[in-house]
Amino acid sequence: MDQSVPPGRVRGICIPPCSKSYAQRALAASLLAEGTSRLHNI
C-alpha cells in the first residue's frame, strides 16, 4: 500500500500500540517534529 502526504501541516491523533519499538519510533518522531507533541498510552 503506497500513500503520499502533500507538504503542509498534518494534524490528528495517533494511538500507538503497546509495542516497545513502535513507542520508541513515536518518541523519535516527536523529537524531530516542530511544535508541541503529545504522546499518550506509551
What does this structure look like?
By secondary structure, this protein is mainly α. The protein contains one helix and no strands. The termini are far apart.
Please specify the SSE layout and strand pairing.
Blueprint: H1 20-32
Protein name: 3-phosphoshikimate 1-carboxyvinyltransferase
GO molecular function, one term: transferase activity, transferring alkyl or aryl (other than methyl) groups
InterPro entries: Enolpyruvate_Tfrase_sf (IPR036968), RNA3'P_cycl/enolpyr_Trfase_a/b (IPR013792)
Keywords:
42 residues; mainly alpha; 0% strand
Q: What's the multimeric state?
A: single chain
Q: Choose one word for the global shape.
A: globular
Q: Strand-residue fraction?
A: under 5%
The DSSP helix count reads: 1
Tally of DSSP β-strands: 0
| Main sheet makeup | none
Radius of gyration (CA) equals: 12 Å
Q: Label the structural class.
A: mainly alpha
Q: End-to-end span in angstroms? A: 27 Å
Q: Give, in order, the helices and strands.
A: H
Q: What percent of residues adopt helix (DSSP H or I)?
A: 25-40%
GO molecular function, one term: transferase activity, transferring alkyl or aryl (other than methyl) groups
Protein name: 3-phosphoshikimate 1-carboxyvinyltransferase
In short:
GO terms for molecular function: transferase activity, transferring alkyl or aryl (other than methyl) groups. The protein has one helix at residues 20-32.
